[in-house]
Amino acid sequence: MDARLPAHLEVSGLLRSVQAAGGFAMVLHKGEREAGTIVVVCTENGANRRIFERMPSPDGDRQWTLVQTEDIENKAGFDEYLARRTRQDPDLWIIELDIADGERFIGLAGTNG
Question: Sign of the CA dihedral 10, 21, 62, 44?
Fold first, then answer.
């Protein structure tokens, strides 16, 4: 049996960790309390937005994966991606972390160069 942490506890931990480090974090879309999928939007002062989602890996684990980056010439495409994911999965949590190298809070090294 999967010993997965309930989604609301993981979300709460992310929010508190980012805020304790001096960043801003908020829930953009509240999903299913126990088993909702979590999508994380990392940004720095509202710019350079990146979307991370857990994806199944070949070994059966779930790894955070960069699934979308903001195109400065098509910012609407980024928001459309989030809206589409929410329509596909109404149980989805969308969390925004506004802090430098926000990826570190989900266990990744910075990917923004």
Answer: positive
38's tokens: 């979590």
Chain mean pLDDT for the chain: 90
The verdict on residue 31 lying in a domain is yes
Query: Taking CA 31 as the corner, what is the angle to CA 22 and CA 85, rounded to the nearest 5 degrees?
Result: 95
**pTM, two decimal places:** 0.88
Range of the domain at 12: 7-103
The domain that holds 97 is classified in CATH as 3.40.1530.20
d(CA 46, CA 75): 12
Q: Is 18 within 8 Å of 24 (Cβ atoms)?
A: yes
